[in-house]
Structure to design on (133 residues):
């Protein structure tokens, strides 16, 4: 089983609120864990806004370094368009970053590990796990 990791999972681990996240990640081969580029962007933004940006950028780098960073491609683009069309038909929306995270995860047939089930439950065909609750 392959995983995509949402930023809130990494943040919980980085802040020490979920030390078991790192333990669970160690149960997977690095080749089975993917990090959408939007997740990296959100983590880098948080580090840059912190009181100790260099320290936090280093922690982020250490946490994500074993895993493949996934950029959008034609497949994830098709999923993005499909997801957005489905949401708009239902009069629903989610953030653009979450749309891309969901599209990348779904295009890779990965399980998205997130604490934000309310947002991602709106995406049909997306497998989800919450490692925080």
């Amino acid at each position: 089983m392959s995983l995509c990791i949402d930023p809130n999972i990494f943040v919980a681990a980085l802040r020490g609120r979920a030390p078991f996240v790192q333990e669970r990640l160690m149960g997977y081969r690095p080749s089975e864990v993917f990090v959408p580029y939007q997740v990296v962007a959100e983590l880098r933004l948080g580090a840059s806004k912190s009181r100790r940006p260099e320290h936090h950028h280093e922690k982020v780098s250490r946490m994500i370094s074993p895993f493949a960073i996934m950029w959008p491609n034609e497949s994830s683009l098709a999923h993005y368009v499909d997801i957005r069309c489905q949401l708009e038909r239902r009069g629903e929306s989610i953030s653009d970053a979450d749309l891309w995270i969901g599209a990348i995860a779904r295009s890779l047939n990965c399980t998205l590990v997130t604490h934000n089930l309310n947002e991602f439950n709106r995406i049909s065909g997306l497998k989800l796990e919450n490692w925080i609750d």
Notes: The mean pLDDT is 95. The longest strand covers residues 33-36. The chain has one domain: 3-129.
